[in-house]
Amino acid sequence: MSTTQPSKELETFPNPNTDIDYTIRITVPEFTCLCPKTGQPDFAELKIEYIADEKCVELKALKLYMWSFREEGAFHEAVTNEILADLVKATEPRFMRLTADFYVRGGIYTTVVAEHRKEGWEAQTPVYLP
Fold first, then answer.
1. How far apart are CA 98 and CA 113, in angstroms?
2. Which residues in the chain belong to E strands, given as ranges?
3. In-domain check, residue 3
4. 106 domain-assigned
5. How far apart are CA 120 and CA 114, in angstroms?
6. For 10, 52, 75, 119, which has the most beta carbons within 10 A of its beta carbon?
7. Is residue 123 part of a domain?
8. Is residue 57 marked as binding?
9. Does residue 5 form part of some domain?
10. Are 74 and 82 in contact (CB under 8 A)?
11. What is the pLDDT of residues 71-80, one digit of tens each?
12. Is 92 annotated as a binding residue?
């Protein structure tokens, strides 16, 4: 029987529809890391939204990747941007946004939003329905 362990390796698979822009949304409701000052746990809900180009992120690998931060100390801003950079490196998306909603600590909530746009990519005009 093999055990599942945290991993920094992000696996991908081929985007099945490279000819169109479509949005992939992933929610990670149980992200944890450690406060670099106190060592106490920080909890967050991460929301990943992206428009794939050639590759999509594989979800089990993403889960193990997120788990790998559980014992690491990181400021909210640093860990959000690190995760975005790793996801962009692995998937090379047309667009990606990572929103990290950190739960209250000391009476303060923190939300960090980081984005990546592939050079030359332009967003489609939104369609608003009545």
1. 6
2. 12-14, 23-34, 41-51, 55-57, 95-105, 108-117
3. no
4. yes
5. 19
6. 52
7. no
8. yes
9. no
10. yes
11. 999 999 999 9
12. no
